[in-house]
Design brief:
The protein is an alpha+beta fold and 212 residues long. The chain has one domain. It is 33% helix and 22% strand. A hairpin with a 5-residue loop joins β5 and β6. The protein is globular. InterPro entries: GmrSD_C. It holds the Pfam family GmrSD_C.
Length: 212
Amino acid sequence: MSTSRTLRSALTVVALSGGLVLGLAPAASAVPPNIPDTETAQTMLTELEVAPDGSMDGYDRDEFPHWSTVSDNCNTREEVLKRDGEGVEVGEDCYPTSGSWFSPFDGETRSEPSDISIDHMVPLANAWRTGAAEWTRDKREQFANDLDDPQLIAVTPESNGAKGDSSPDEWKPEVREHWCDYGKSWIAVKDKWQLTVNEAEKGALEEMLGTC
């Protein structure tokens, strides 16, 4: 079952004769858009070009301008905070004044927007060495601010920092129940933007799809 339905839950204590039992009370969770189903993701993965990663020569995060203005006073980061949080209210500058954010990577919940990072599912550096080095700067900006696909997700800074620019063979979310959605999201982004995968990366993605 998709972690978008099961991962975000709160422990509740239910009094029963003979003791206390811990149960799971499901709660809704915002997730990035357009995560494919497992069968579609498997097809996408088989169609991705397999090639060794390219060079990091010339790479700079500034080659991927972000966070771009989306509408009115809202930039891409603020749009993701609104989308992925619960009870989010924003001020006139679009910055959240209240809300909470659940990080599926490590199962942590935070109530301050400053305690949340916006993760690029396929990191900018990974994209650079798997095809984006050949793109125009405008296309790299579109990639870094893609709100239409599962490329952006609100997570804790700790999990985002641990991931860095790693591919799935080098880093996976601490919460194993999220591996399915993580793998499908990674594949969907690589498919949309026609980025390559290396052999180890493809093997790790196959493993993650095996948990769906």
